[in-house]
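Hey,

Quick one before I head out. I ran the complex with adenosine monophosphate overnight. Inputs first:
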Amino acid sequence: MHSWREECAVFGAWGDPEASRMTYLGLYAQQHRGQESSGIVSLQDGQHNVHRGMGLVGDVFKEADLMRLSGKAAVGHNRYSTTGASLQFNIQPLSAHLLNGPVALAHNGNFVNADEMREELKQSGAIFQGTNDTECLLHMLARNKSNDIVTCLKESLPRLVGAYSMVLMTNDRLIAARDPFGFRPLVLGKRPIGDGSFSWVVASETCAFDLIGAKLVREIEPGEIVWFDNSGEHRDKIPQQAPRLAKCVFEHVYFARPDSQVFGLSVYDSRKRMGEALARENKVEADLVIPVPDSGTPAAIGYARESGIPFELGIIRNHYIGRTFIQPSQSIRSFGVKIKLNAQSELLKGKRVVVIDDSIVRGTTSQKIIRLVRAAGAKEVHFRIASPPTTGPCYYGVDTPGKSQLIAAQNSLDQIREFIDADSLAYLSVEGMMKAVRGSSEEFCSACFDGNYPTKIDEDPKESSRDSVDKK
Ligand code: AMP
């Protein structure tokens, strides 16, 4: 089985007396982007201090670890995993000692040509430690003859196709780079550190800045390299043109936190607009609008406002679910979803209910939720999805299964409706979604919804049995 590991958060701080603590908090705020492992590398007197581990940010770092991560610069990473064996070697930031000193690298996104690059590097003698695509870049940097890391990056990155929003740290610099397509978000901020001075911070999402009291300065532009050293802030361009922009629309649909600004837009607002558009496109007579918490909540607010149907929290989520729990006896049915979600029968009994969720992937969650809502006494269940049918896998950093497991890639609308057992089912149109993110198919990647992949994809790696590279 090809086990894909994707979705990540990155963070970096420069010139901050509490660099590793800010990084810790920045990772904490971005925990939703990756729960498998976490790591921080700090810079002190030209040397790197490293702490990495499996698990959530709060479990990986203890006070003593943060004390040890001293220095005024740091880089951090949260890594996501779905299933499959997890390798210590894959925990980021990746570290290496190159000719010009230490390098730490934190990457969000996927290189789509990682398999070929890995093969080529192996042929020329590279020894790989982990199974991730990010390591390719470290080997390319190591082989580059320039003693300037930015030159090394400018010469290496154009050979890697795909998505990268990354933060690197050497013995004297913090560098942030975003691929020319602009797939994944990356933002630059400033944190006041007293006496009118400030430190520089870089993060995947602005919610990390809110927690540490940093101000958003701007997005790192697609194709831009920004770096900080003792002489200040510098910028350059990656010498590679993308045929178009390809900002991931799924960040707005599901992935990013609603309190973040992604690609210059409030995620909360765009989700509400998706709900409003969904209501305009797919009207239904009903008594209540209820969200699937938390992913469907902003869209349900929008749907209720636009349709005039009252909004209620008909499903309540338990926020304290750990990674594992003891299974009950066989006699408790549909236990899996019930531990997380509970439907309120006092509210739902005898009602015609519109249930709103952000997306359907395999369809199994929707099926269980509808069962739950019906068991609570709902008379009719109308399922509304605040994005178009998910018909294609993502190769650029979002964890979606192969086409064969995507219910909308294999079935008609009515077959899906039947499978999830809804009285009616409707999705948002691609046009409605694009309007909600104030964009178009020329600047957003919506390949998971329309099959319009911005890079060449030879075969579906998510269906293939090749297992050389796990994507983050
Ligand atoms: P499924 O049972 O596979 O249809 O799961 C669909 C649910 O998973 C939706 O309610 C989404 O909120 C959520 N979801 C969608 N995409 C992802 C993803 N890439 N990673 C984790 N959860 C997701």
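The longest helix spans residues 267-281.

Talk tomorrow,
K.
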